[in-house]
Write a structure and sequence with these properties.
It is built from eleven helices and five strands; from the N terminus they run βαβαβαβαβααααααα.
Length: about 300
């Protein structure tokens, strides 16, 4: 596979003859390159910023700005800092010069006069790095996508679990209330109201209903916060005067529970819940019926 196919190479050199030599070498290679060039270093920098070529071959010493200056400028931008730049030089050839170029951000260097084999080796090496880097980025993107989808699936699963648990708790609570109401009815009838076992059962169900309210809410709240981590934080930040009971009601409304279901869980009358909902709408500045509370709370 030709990994360097259809790559763009920018040549910057103040000597047009050097540009032509590099151009001819690249054109004669087996790979297909799109080649652009500039004999002005400042114009070359502008082209690099706009065109974002795959690789840049630049002279070191130029009148307007040096090849090192170009590297430094390109590294300031997130969109160009990863472009590999090959420095072509026939003057600064000492080991200290070459170290300076590499430390400044040059990917590689090639000596002048340009040797065809050396230039192509440097270019192909740089382009392989580009392809491997692009593959790495794509793999990371795909992994992030998979992770995001997995997290979303887990969230949806937790939402279904929370809804099922909520409905079950509502059902249990309704049964407890119905059972307690039946015991109360029997208590006030002519049957076994003075029976010790009966009185124990009545007291026991009273205790269940008193403690059940708080335990049901605690369990729901733990599950709710696992799914909606920033809900309370965002809500309190925007409406700092909101009370604990109003926050609790907001959680139920965000779960899209009906007024009747909320009444069953909180042991409040339907009318009390309706009044609380109206107060919430006023506090949130919701007028009319254009936006319901559930839709509004989904934004937190």
């Amino acid at each position: 596979m030709q990994i360097s196919e259809n790559k763009t190479i920018l040549i910057i050199d103040d000597e047009p003859s050097n540009i032509q030599i590099i151009y001819n070498i690249l054109q004669s290679s087996e790979s297909s390159f799109k080649i652009i060039s500039s004999s002005s270093s400042t114009l070359g920098l502008t082209i690099a910023m706009k065109a974002k070529p795959d690789i840049i071959i630049t002279d070191w010493e130029m009148p307007e700005m040096t090849g090192i200056d170009i590297i430094i400028e390109l590294q300031k931008s997130e969109t160009t800092k990863e472009i590999p730049i090959i420095i072509a030089t026939g003057v600064n050839m000492s080991s200290l010069d070459l170290k300076y170029a590499l430390d400044s951000g040059a990917y590689d260097f090639v000596r002048k006069p340009i040797d065809e084999s050396e230039l192509l080796a440097r270019v192909n090496s740089a382009l392989r790095i580009i392809d491997y880097y692009n593959i790495k980025i794509e793999i990371e993107r795909q992994l992030e996508k998979i992770k995001s989808e997995k997290n979303q699936n887990e969230i949806e699963s937790k939402k279904r679990e929370l809804l099922a648990k909520t409905l079950l708790l509502i059902k249990i609570n309704k049964l407890n209330m119905a059972f307690n109401q039946e015991l109360e009815r029997i208590k006030h009838s002519d049957s076994k109201s003075d029976c010790e076992v009966f009185n124990f059962a009545l007291n026991y169900t009273d205790e269940i209903l008193k403690n059940g309210n708080e335990s049901i809410w605690n369990e729901l709240e733990v599950n709710f916060e696992q799914i909606n981590e920033k809900f309370y934080t965002n809500l309190i930040y925007k409406f700092p005067s909101i009370t604990p009971n109003e926050r609790k009601l907001c959680a139920f409304l965000r779960l899209n529970l009906s007024t009747k279901d909320i009444s069953s869980i909180t042991f409040q009358t339907v009318r009390s819940i309706e009044i609380a909902r109206t107060r919430l709408r006023d506090k949130f500045g919701l007028k009319g019926a254009e936006t319901d509370l559930h839709t509004f709370l989904l934004g937190f």
